[in-house]
Amino acid sequence: MKSGCTNHPKFRALMRRLCAPQYAVVGVLESVWMLASQFADDGDLTRFTAEEIADFVAWEGDANELLQTLIECRWLDENEGQITVHDWAEHCPKYVADRLAKRKQRAQVSQNVGDSPRQVENVAENRGLPSQVKSNPTKSKCASRKRDASLSEEFDQWWEHYPKKVDKQRARKKFDAAVSTIRKSESFEESKAVDWLIDRTRNYASSVAGTESRYIKGPAAWLHEERYWDESAPTAPEEVRDDFNPEVDSL
Questions:
Q1: Which residue of 61, 171, 206, 212 has the lowest C-beta tally within 10 Å?
Q2: pLDDT, tens digit, 9 for 90 and up, residues 143-172
């Protein structure tokens, strides 16, 4: 929470409405922002019920009253049934802000790259002329390098969330393959596939929190075995090896 936020009239109003001390209200707001960061990085909480939000922030009072109070005190916005975090760009963590900026940038680049050549082709087709658009090997290589650099950045972001830090280079290769698999299976764009994988990784990290390291899958093995499709971690822990399976490593 930003310095001075607890002195803001909105914060004081929320304290009065909830009849809660300052530390409790800070906890409520921080938890709401955490909920958005982990499961709705665009700040849209519409898919969560009032009860789910209240449960996440550990609010023991009436869930509907909590949600309505957050809206009336302008910590959440409601517009035609959509509920979003007010001024989400100011409250979201830096890694979320960076992700949203990259997502917007990739979408813009994709639109520019996708639209321009097609416009030229359409003009040629409409005139009954052959298209003059030619492939440029140099530009293709540059685009490929930029894509690899972008995916490398996304891997580093994913790596921060994985609960066991071993075999990073092997994990990097498996990460690329996992993103490709998710894109094909779910018909996602690359950015959405990466975000989905990061969310699944956070879920896995939460499920093994407090677990001894030897019971946690190494990142390369976890990706290769496509454990990101799992709904939850196994209930009975089994010891796993840190060293990577030679058969898997050769893939």
A1: 212
A2: 444 445 557 889 999 999 999 999 899 999
* Final residue before a domain boundary, out of 71, 91, 111: 91
Residue 226 belongs to a domain: yes
Chain centroid offset of residue 139 CA: 30
Residues 129 and 22: their CA atoms lie apart, in Å, by 71
**How many separate domains does the chain show?**
2
**Maximum CA extent, the chain:** 74
Name residue, tokens 């849209």: 44
Reported as a single tens digit per residue, the pLDDT across 94-149 is: 888 887 887 777 667 656 655 555 554 454 444 444 445 455 555 555 544 444 55
In the chain, pLDDT over 90 holds for what percent of residues?
47
Q: 76, exposed or middle or buried, with CB in 10 Å at 0-12, 13-18, 19+?
A: buried
Residue 189 · residue 237 · CB < 8 Å: no
Q: What are phi and psi of 78, to 5 degrees?
A: -125, 125
Residues 212-242 as b or e (16 or more Cβ within 10 Å = b): eeeebbbbbbbbbeebbeeeebeeeeeeeee
| Enclosing domain of residue 164 | 148-249
